[in-house]
Design goal:
CATH topology of the largest domain: Creatine Amidinohydrolase
Strand content: 5-15%
Number of strands: 17
Helix content: 25-40%
Strand order of the largest sheet: 6-5-4-1-7
Number of helices: 17
Largest sheet: 5 strands, mixed
Structural class: alpha+beta
Distance between the termini: 38 Å
CATH architecture of the largest domain: Alpha-Beta Complex
CATH superfamily of the largest domain: Creatinase/methionine aminopeptidase superfamily
Oligomer: single chain
Shape: globular
């Protein structure tokens, strides 16, 4: 939690961004695992954290634009709450800590809706909040989901995309833990060790130094499956272990790194060749990312490097621009180059991925691969992004393209047979856009060349 003045200033700016009516920000409640008293670890809504800073369930915030008044709504703890969950300062004390003077019971929320003013709320992503809004607004679920405020959504996205000095410090803190997680994963990447053991150790590290992991850990020898949460494998010599993991600190800011490590710290020449193409795409993308440049163009340049690198190995062929226009490199990298990051590892995607990553100037592409880029618009100082190029050999996708004669002018399908069972390589760093260019969010970079990773494994 930051200083009180930061939350006051954020709400003042929000007030100036919405013309009239009532702004309603719902905090999250508890979510049951398998029965009501066995709940998932509580996670507050990120926009509620950003403007209110209070990290407890059962709260709502109301900003009456026309009357220039604000309220925190919630209920005081009962004696049963205190017995089972412990005591907290009173709601009025907690509100005062973030600069809110007036506190009301949660049941009073309906008073503000009854005044026949426009109610600005964000698109709900929790079912309980959807149901609550249905009762509050007397609307059906589909009407609630489609009736969110575009005006409020755009105002919040505009504010949250530009990270403050305090936010960058918190992101650096999360990056420090993320760095430690990956160093441990590299050192444990030895023949005979289970993927589950490594995933468990690094997730425990995230919890011991912060709140939790920032997303379910991806750790597998089968790196060709982009979001592989199966940890059932036993590390075998000659294989690669892709580890995509990050932490969420106590302020709830995220980190997100990926490294691909040879089991036992010994890359084959074939593995080094592919790794170094991905590494060039990573380094060149970071160098290109600067104010005024669209991230969509950086993504396209990453495809250019991947195409030309694979062409040098004989796996692709033909003219570079023609191949890029045809979307041929997407066979090997079917995902986007990166995404915004902050309080959410995919920052604000609950507000609409396209609203966050695109605008009236830069539209989302419809072509396979290109369409998966989550953030494409023009970069500004304060943007925090991931840069995560990769090359994957996905047997089913290769077979589909071969059978359907897709991009045969640019792909040597026969030579791809030698890469059966290769898996995939992804490398990912987190960057912040500066007035001059970009820099790593956490200044200490993880080992990233094959030689650096080999040393990290063997040390």
């Amino acid at each position: 939690m930051f200083e009180k003045e930061i939350y006051i200033k954020r709400r003042e700016l929000l007030k100036k961004s919405v013309n009239s009516g009532i702004v309603l920000l719902l905090g999250n409640g508890e979510a049951a695992v398998n029965y009501a008293d066995n709940a998932y670890t509580f996670r507050q809504d990120s926009s509620f954290i950003y403007y209110i800073g209070l990290d407890t369930p059962g709260l709502a915030y109301v900003l009456d634009i026309d009357n220039d008044t604000e309220y925190l709504l919630g209920d005081e703890l009962t004696i049963d709450d205190i017995i089972w969950m412990g005591n907290l300062p009173s709601l009025k004390e907690r509100a005062a800590a973030v600069g809110i003077e007036t506190v009301l019971p949660y049941s009073r929320l309906s008073d503000f809706v009854a005044k026949n003013k426009p109610v600005h709320y964000l698109k709900p992503y929790r079912h309980l909040n959807t149901l609550y809004l249905c009762d509050l607004l007397d609307k059906k679920a589909d009407e609630v989901i489609s009736g969110f405020s575009i005006e409020l959504t755009k105002a919040i996205i505009k504010m949250r995309l530009i990270k403050s000095v305090e936010e960058l410090k918190s992101l650096e803190d999360s990056g420090k833990t993320g760095y430690a997680m990956h160093i441990v994963a590299m050192k444990m990447c030895q023949q005979g060790v289970s993927e589950r053991e490594i995933a468990g150790v690094i997730e425990g590290l995230a919890i011991s130094e912060g709140a939790r992991v920032s997303f379910p850990t991806i750790l597998s020898m089968n790196g060709q499956t982009l979001h592989n949460h199966d940890h059932s494998g036993i590390l075998a010599p000659g294989r690669l272990m892709l580890c995509d993991a990050g932490s969420e600190n106590m302020d709830h800011y995220a980190s997100d790194f990926t490294r691909t490590t040879a089991v036992g710290g010994a890359y084959s020449q074939k593995q080094k060749d592919i790794h170094n193409i991905v590494l060039k795409a990573l380094n060149d993308s970071i160098a290109l990312a600067k104010p005024g440049v669209t991230y969509k163009s950086v993504h396209r340049n990453a495809y250019k490097i991947i195409f030309e690198g694979l062409r040098s190995l004989g796996l692709m062929k033909g003219d570079t621009e023609e191949a890029l226009n045809a979307g041929a490199p997407a066979l090997f990298m079917p995902h986007g180059l990166g995404h915004a990051m902050g309080l959410d590892v995919h920052d604000m995607e609950n507000l609409g991925e396209t609203c966050v990553g695109y605008d009236d100037e830069v539209a989302r592409d419809t072509m396979f691969g290109y369409k998966s880029l989550r953030f494409g618009k023009r970069l500004e100082p304060g943007h925090v992004l991931t840069v995560e190029p990769g090359i994957y050999f996905i047997p089913q996708l290769i077979e589909k393209w071969k059978t359907e004669n897709i991009n045969t002018a640019f792909i040597n399908f026969e030579k791809l047979k030698a890469y059966d069972g290769f898996g995939g390589i992804r490398l990912e760093d987190d960057i912040v856009i500066t007035p001059e260019g970009s820099r790593l969010v956490y200044e200490k970079r993880l080992p990233v060349t094959p030689e650096e990773i080999e040393r990290a494994v063997k040390d």
